[in-house]
Design brief:
With 211 residues, the chain is α/β, with parallel strands linked by helices. It has a single domain, classed as Rossmann fold (3-Layer(aba) Sandwich). It has six helices and seven strands. It has a seven-stranded mixed β-sheet with strand order 3-2-1-4-5-7-6. The longest helix has 14 residues.
Length: 211
């Protein structure tokens, strides 16, 4: 389905970055390493690369990644790519400064496990940024899963990230205008969380799987 979507629609969700990611731009630093699960045609990874971050775009659609490579070339930036199912990928421990999960929805029985794997791939002090559709999105037709079990609530996010320092979690009613697939009123969950520093930790190991 996803290959067909990106083959027919090109940049199916547009080329502009997530507004929530842009909102947090003051926290982004050149040289930081960011993993972007279910990154689609690369709009967020390319935007990060333009700001000097090392971006790893992960998706299981080859068509989407072809579009992402094209976008990176057009913008004159370097992005690393991993063709993989983010739920099955072996997330490397303590390797990223950021994990940025935009519209990356999971089946209810898998969600906590996948979120834990993503979160554990952060270096101590690293950030997890999430944006996805809230359960109330079923009232609207502006995008997202039609299966309530794949949608988000503050309660399930707080449970999944119980070990994190949650800096912000909020439910926003927004007017989406990202593409024909995300257009109109919608309800989003947005969260910024941080991996706690261990006592005596100086900021995590200095490595990145895409450096």
């Amino acid at each position: 389905m996803w290959d067909v979507r990106y083959r027919e629609d090109g940049h199916a969700y547009g080329t502009a970055p997530s507004l929530y990611l842009v909102e947090k731009k003051e926290l982004l630093k050149p040289g930081q390493c960011a993993a972007l699960p279910a990154d689609g045609s690369g709009r967020n990874a390319v935007w990060l690369a333009e700001r000097g971050l090392k971006a790893l775009s992960i998706d299981f659609s080859r068509e989407a990644q072809d579009r992402a490579r094209q976008l990176a070339a057009e913008r004159g930036v370097k992005v690393a790519f991993e063709l993989a199912d983010v739920g099955e990928w072996a997330w490397p421990a303590e390797s990223f400064d950021w994990v940025i999960s935009i519209y990356c929805h999971h089946a209810e029985e898998d969600r906590a496990r996948i979120h834990a794997a993503m979160f554990n791939s952060l270096k101590p002090g690293g950030y997890f940024l999430l944006e996805g559709f809230h359960a109330d999105q079923l009232r609207y037709q502006s995008g997202g899963p039609r299966d309530r079990s794949k949608l988000l609530t503050e309660e399930n996010l707080r449970a999944d990230f119980a070990d994190a320092e949650i800096l912000e979690v909020r439910k926003d009613l927004v007017e989406l205008n990202e593409s024909r697939l995300h257009r109109g009123p919608g309800v989003l969950m947005r969260m910024l969380a941080k991996r706690r520093m261990a006592h005596g930790d100086s900021g995590g190991i200095e490595r990145c799987v895409i450096c």
